[in-house]
From TrEMBL:
Residues 30-382 form the FAD dependent oxidoreductase domain. InterPro entries: FAD-dep_OxRdtase, FAD/NAD-bd_sf. It comes from the Bacteria. Gene3D superfamilies: D-Amino Acid Oxidase, subunit A, domain 2, FAD/NAD(P)-binding domain. This is FAD-dependent oxidoreductase. It holds the Pfam family DAO.
Length: 401
């Protein structure tokens, strides 16, 4: 699957990443990770830190799939608001899901600090605001619900939004917990750090065929080599293995994003806040360095790459028009616009863990708007499954739920 258009902002910022060789010999390991994006890198971090012999392979260059197109809004909030998720899956599981996402956000900060990549990771506030006046009552209910369970939120009315952000909206939830990062550079730096700790990384090495053994798996690669592992992890992003999930369990969509040209006099408050609204699909904005903003949204129910990319000029104008409605005093023009394909689930939760049909296999499929947060959760779930044979909260993300 072609998961992104050719030009993305992150690739233009870091054009000469670290390169890895393809696999030229037979190897064995405890865990093989298929997929070298930010999800695979974060899973590798947890395994390598635990002393587990790990190999990571990617069919292209690492971080050149959906990671290169990710907008990397790091949030504990999910696509499904907490009060709605409680109705869907129950109070205990819904609150635990949000709590795990908040813990993952803090864990990501620890990872960035440990590998000296704090310059690629920045703490932010998060503002979830009403796309239209009719959304206010439900948004207030969400604020009350989150506050009830101890999540860090405050309500801002129309006047406060204008005074603090220059934003035209009827009201919103301001949370102190959020972050942003450069996903491409972060992944590159993390993998470089991990190779120094013993991780083996191979690019242009696809898993062509997999044989299940009594005590593990054997993978035949596109290079004609063999990898034998006790367990295999699929961190393949939106390139979902066939027959893994039922067709009605996920929805594949195309989405659009742009980076603005530098904006004069962009306020620090706007630069230090993740902004997203209640629309479906929602509009969002975040800083991207150099007084630029990253704007995104405009999801479409299509995945064919040609059709998706053909809409880029139209979507660019829609995103700029929406931003100018919300921030009439902030002139914005586009510098680079791109498209990507992603998947979402009915309950906004990812698929993580084991699948009943595939032995010796773990999955880290962080579908939804906060896939990087889900990747951290997947990393800890998979480490626990490998080391202890269970994880208390893996049930939340099980297949067939």
């Amino acid at each position: 699957m072609n998961v992104r258009s050719s030009d993305t902002y992150w690739l233009s910022r870091d054009p000469v990443p670290t390169r890895y060789s393809s696999l030229r010999r037979a190897v064995d390991c405890d865990v093989l990770i298929i997929g070298g994006g930010i999800t695979g890198a974060l899973v590798a971090y947890e395994l390598v830190e635990a002393g587990i012999n790990t190999i990571l392979i990617d069919k292209r260059e690492v971080a050149h799939g959906s990671t290169a197109a990710s907008t990397a809004m790091i949030q504990y909030e999910m696509d499904v608001p907490l009060h709605q998720l409680i109705d869907q899956i129950g109070e205990t599981d819904a609150v635990l899901s949000y709590t795990l996402c908040l813990r993952a956000l803090n864990r990501l900060a620890e990872v960035a600090k440990k590998m000296d990549a704090s310059g690629r990771f920045h703490r932010q506030e998060s503002l979830y605001f009403a796309a239209q006046c009719e959304d206010i009552d439900e948004l207030k209910e969400e604020c009350i619900t989150r506050s009830r369970y101890g999540f860090p939120v405050n309500w801002l009315d129309q006047k406060a939004l204008w005074q603090q952000f220059g934003l035209v909206a009827a009201g919103g939830i301001l949370s102190s917990a959020g972050a942003e990062l450069d996903p491409f550079a972060f992944t590159q730096r993390l993998l470089l750090y991990l190779t120094r700790q013993g991780l083996q990384v191979f690019e242009h090495t696809a898993a062509e065929a997999l044989t299940y053994l009594e005590q593990g798996v054997q993978v035949q690669t596109s290079q004609g080599t063999t990898i034998t592992a006790k367990k295999v992890v699929y961190a393949t992003g939106y390139e979902v293995p066939e027959r893994l999930v039922e067709a009605n369990d996920i929805t594949m969509l195309s989405t659009y994003a742009l980076v603005t040209a530098p904006i004069p006099h962009l306020t620090e408050r706007v630069k230090n806040t993740l902004l997203w609204d209640t629309a479906h699909p929602y509009f969002y904005a975040r800083s991207s360095g150099g007084n630029r903003l990253l704007l995104g949204g405009g999801d479409e129910d299509l995945v064919e790459a040609g059709q998706r990319d053909k809409l880029i000029p139209q979507k660019q104008q829609q995103l700029l028009d929406r931003f100018n409605e919300l921030f009439p005093d902030v002139p914005a023009t586009a510098e680079l616009t791109w498209a990507g394909t992603f998947a979402e689930t009915k309950d906004g939760l990812p698929y993580i863990g084991e699948h009943p049909r595939y032995p010796h296999s773990y999955y880290a499929l962080g579908f939804g708007g906060n896939g990087i947060t889900f990747s951290l959760i997947a990393a800890t779930v998979i480490r626990n499954l490998y080391q202890h044979g269970h994880c208390d909260y893996a049930r939340l993300f099980r297949f067939g739920r």
